[in-house]
Design goal:
eight-stranded mixed β-sheet, alpha/beta, Rossmann fold, eight-stranded parallel β-barrel, binds ligand 1PR, single chain
Length: 535
C-alpha cells in the first residue's frame, strides 16, 4: 500500500500508472491524518518549490510531514519532493522548506553554457552502497529540473550524484527516508525497478559502504525521439500518418502508418527516449472534442514509461454553444490524460506577434501553462520554411548565410514561421520566435523544417545551429532524418540536445537501436537498452 501525496498542483498520472504497473495499491492523502497513517508515502512534488511548499502549508500537511520524516518512516520524494526536504530554495526566496536537511537548493548556473533545464537521461554515481540503487548504477534516469541540491548542501545524506556542469545530488537517503531528483516513473525499466524496491521495503543502506567521489563524470545523453503525427483518416479512424513536406495525402488518401498506441508502445520497447504525439489537424478541430485523441494519450501513458509530449490545438477556443476555453484548459486536459509536456505551435506565432506589438502581459498560453506546470512542461513546436533573400539587409528578419543556395543562387536565407500545419506563413522568423518564447517561459524548442520533412535528406543544420545558438533552453532537431549518420551530424555540428524522427522509424528503415549504436560508436553519449554503458 502506497499513500500518494498528490496535492493537486500538476500531473501525477504518470506516477499512478507506474505504481499500477508494479501492482501497488494507491491511497490518496486527503487530510493531514492520512500522512501519519501512511505505510509508505510517496511525494511527487510538481511545479515550483514555492508553490509546492505553500500548498503543503495551506493543506496543513507541513507539520505531519515533518513528524513522519523525523520518525524515519518509509518515504520517497521525487524531484520537487526531494527539494522540499531542504531549508529552502533560491527559486522561492523567503519560502521555508521542510528543513529536514540543512542547506538551500540552487539554480544551475547559466554561465556553464549548458541548457537549463537539465532535461534528459543522465547517469548516476553511487556514493553509498544500499539496496535501493544497487545494480542500477550503470543505468540512466530521466531528469528534468532547473534547480538542484549541491553536494555541500546534501552532506551525509548523499546516496548518488550526477554531473551537469558540476556534481549535484541525484538521490539522498537517511534510514527509510529517500528522495530522488530524477523521475523513476519516466525512467523506463530501471525506474520501475526502483519503485518496486521501495514498495517492497528493499531500501537498506549498507553500513560502512560510503564511496569516494573519484569516478568518471556522468554525461547527459543526447535524446532520440520518435514522433507520431496523428489525425483522423477519411474513414474517421485516428491513425499515425506522415507527410512529405507536410503533405500527408497519397493518391488523395491520408497515409495510414499504424495505430497510435501500438506504435508508441513499440517505440518505448525499442528504446525511444521520449515519444511525441502531434495532433496535426487540431488547429481546425477543437481538441477537447477529440475524445479519441485523449483516449490515445491515456492508453499510451499506461504502457510507456518515458516522457510523452503532446501537441496540437493548444489555444483559446469558443465552442458552438458560446462556451469559452482557455489554452490552459486544453493543456490541463492533456496533462490529466497523461502528457508530461505539451507543445504549442500556431498559438506561439500569434503570441510572438502580439508581444512584438504590445509587450508581454502574462496572458499568453506559454506564460500561463509554464506558471502552472513549470517551464519544462512547455515545448514550442516551430514549423519554419526557408525564404531566400539577396542580401542580409533585405529583411528585418534574422538572416543567415547559407551553403545551400536558393533557386536563383541566393546565399542568404531566413526561416519563416508558419501556422496551421504550414498552410500560412507569418512575418516572424524561427530565431525571434524561439528567443521570445524562451523569455515567456518555454522550456524547450521542437524545431521542424517544412523543407526537410519526410525527405530523408538530413536535418537542416543551418536552421538548427541558428536557433540553438540563440537560446539557452534545449532544442530538439526535427525533420529530414534518413540515416544514422544524420543523427551523428546534427549532434556534432549544432549542439542540439535531442533529435526527432518519424518516417524512418514508421517504415522500419532504421531501428532506433541502430541509430543509437551509430551514435555510441561516434562517441555521442546515448542511452542504450536502458543502460548507460554505451557512453
Ligand atoms: O499549431 O499548435 O495546432 O500544432 C500542430 C502541430 O502539428 C505542430 O507541432 C505542427 O508541427 C504539427 N503539424 C501540423 N501539420 C503537420 C503536417 O505534417 N501536415 N506535422 C504537422 C508536423 C513534423 C514533424 C515530423 C518531423 C519528422 N510534423 O514533427 O514528425 O518532420 O519527420 P521525418 O523524420 O519523417 O522527416 P498547433
Amino acid at each position: 500500500m502506497i499513500s500518494l501525496l498528490d496535492y493537486g498542483a500538476g500531473n501525477v498520472r504518470s506516477l499512478r500508472n507506474a505504481l499500477a504497473r508494479i501492482g501497488a495499491e494507491v491511497r490518496e492523502v486527503r487530510g493531514p491524518e492520512d500522512i501519519l497513517e501512511a505505510e509508505r508515502l510517496v511525494f511527487p512534488g510538481v511545479g515550483a518549490f514555492g508553490s509546492a511548499m505553500a500548498r503543503l502549508e495551506q493543506l496543513g500537511f507541513v507539520e505531519p510531514l515533518r513528524e513522519y520524516l523525523q520518525a524515519d518512516r518509509p518515504f520517497l520524494g521525487i524531484c520537487i519532493g526531494l527539494q522540499c526536504l531542504f531549508e529552502g530554495s533560491t527559486e522561492s526566496p523567503g519560502q521555508p522548506g521542510l528543513g529536514i536537511m540543512p542547506g538551500m537548493v540552487e539554480r544551475f548556473p547559466e554561465s556553464s553554457g549548458l541548457a537549463v533545464p537539465h532535461m534528459g537521461w543522465n547517469g548516476i554515481r553511487l556514493r553509498h552502497g544500499g539496496a535501493l540503487l544497487s545494480g542500477l548504477e550503470d543505468r540512466r534516469f530521466y531528469f528534468v529540473h532547473s534547480y538542484r541540491a549541491t553536494l555541500e548542501a546534501t552532506g551525509d545524506w548523499l546516496l548518488a550524484e550526477s554531473d551537469y556542469g558540476a556534481p549535484f545530488a541525484a538521490a539522498v537517503q537517511r534510514g527509510q527516508v529517500l528522495a530522488v531528483q530524477f523521475h523513476p516513473e519516466k525512467s523506463g525499466e530501471p525506474g520501475i525497478e526502483l519503485l518496486r524496491r521501495f514498495l517492497a521495503g528493499r531500501v537498506q543502506l549498507s553500513p560502512g559502504s560510503r564511496r569516494p567521489p573519484a569516478q568518471a563524470p556522468t554525461q547527459l545523453a543526447k535524446r532520440v525521439i520518435a514522433c507520431l503525427d496523428v489525425r483522423s483518416n477519411d474513414a474517421g479512424d485516428l491513425v499515425v500518418t506522415k507527410g512529405d513536406q507536410y503533405d500527408v495525402r497519397e493518391a488523395g488518401e491520408v497515409r495510414n502508418l499504424g495505430k497510435p498506441v501500438e506504435l508508441a508502445a513499440r517505440y518505448y520497447e525499442e528504446g525511444a527516449d521520449e515519444i511525441t504525439f502531434l495532433n496535426i489537424t487540431a488547429f481546425r478541430d477543437f481538441p477537447l472534442r477529440d475524445q479519441p485523441m485523449l483516449e490515445v494519450l491515456r492508453r499510451a501513458s499506461e504502457q510507456v514509461f518515458v516522457p510523452l509530449t503532446i501537441g496540437g490545438g493548444i489555444r483559446a477556443f469558443t465552442d458552438a454553444d458560446g462556451r469559452a476555453y482557455s489554452a490552459l484548459d486544453v493543456a490541463d486536459e492533456y496533462f490529466r490524460s497523461g502528457a508530461d509536456k505539451i507543445s504549442i505551435g500556431s498559438d506561439a506565432v500569434d503570441t510572438v506577434e502580439q508581444v512584438r506589438a504590445h509587450g508581454a502581459d502574462g496572458s499568453s498560453a506559454i506564460e500561463q501553462i509554464a506558471e502552472r506546470y513549470g517551464n519544462q512542461a512547455v515545448v514550442i513546436s516551430i514549423d519554419p520554411r526557408r525564404i531566400y533573400v539577396d542580401s542580409p539587409d533585405a529583411t528585418p528578419r534574422h538572416v543567415v548565410e547559407t551553403k545551400i543556395s536558393g533557386p536563383n543562387g541566393e546565399r542568404w536565407v531566413w526561416f519563416q514561421c508558419t501556422v496551421r500545419g504550414g498552410r500560412e506563413g507569418r512575418d516572424v522568423d524561427a530565431v525571434e520566435l524561439a528567443r521570445t518564447c524562451e523569455a515567456l517561459g518555454a522550456g524547450e524548442i521542437l524545431l521542424n523544417s517544412i523543407d526537410r520533412d519526410g525527405t530523408g535528406s538530413g536535418f537542416d543544420l543551418e536552421l538548427i545551429a541558428a536557433v540553438r545558438g540563440a537560446v539557452g533552453i534545449p532544442v530538439i532537431a526535427s525533420s529530414g532524418a534518413g540515416s544514422p549518420e544524420h543523427f551523428i551530424e546534427v549532434f556534432e555540428r549544432t549542439g542540439a540536445e535531442a533529435a526527432l524522427a518519424a518516417g524512418i522509424f514508421h517504415r522500419r528503415e532504421v531501428p532506433i537501436d541502430e541509430v543509437k549504436a551509430a551514435l555510441d560508436a561516434a562517441a555521442v553519449p546515448v542511452r542504450r537498452d536502458g543502460s548507460a554503458s554505451g557512453s
